[in-house]
């Protein structure tokens, strides 16, 4: 049975999509069967693989709104073990329709339940808000991964986000676990980033991933060529970091974890 991991944060530009694409690819290269589901109406996953260049017939929009089977929206992108569900939203009207249908918070959970056994990991790339679509993801997920940039406001925002997540979990998914907080776009040259990482590790003991994703030009360039970083430059620091994260995730799979409802304590849990 697959593990469903939602990648969420209330902030945009923190590395959610980059993590979904590159963690998903690394897991796939390591032999795990992965489905990447783009929940963001901006369609960033499709953009990262240049799927706009080919004719995508169906996406999550059609599954959520027009009730077509999920199997019809799964795209083969020519990589072993990795498949994608794009959002495929074409205009504002469709976007409003999509968020309105997502008021039914258990919709995605029902949709994913039919294909869960075909994958080892299903990764949900969430929009940068706690709206109906993200609530669907948190209801469908087994675990949550939160990317955080080591910046001044991150600590406070993270505490607030975790409280909101806890309330959502209590109401819709008491079994939800916190996979971990992932530090992204770390720039070694900045002293204050190091200090903030220290604070994050102190304040959120045991729930911050050991792997830290560096700010890396290859990671930023990869979407322009439509490839995950591992296929652009396997030995770049960004690719190496996402492989390390994939290994950390595979190794943590069998660890005993408490649910998100039990307070901040224990291993990789909230
Ligand atoms: N570790 C990194 N190093 C360099 N650039 C990055 C890194 N992570 C993300 N980026 C770039 O930052 C921008 C925002 O990242 P993205 O993953 O789209 O964020 P989100 O999905 O949270 O909005 C993108 O242009 C992406 O290429
Ligand atoms: Mg994104």
From TrEMBL:
Residues 3-177 form the AAA domain. It holds the Pfam family AAA_31. It comes from the Bacteria. It comes from Caldithrix abyssi. This is ParA family protein.
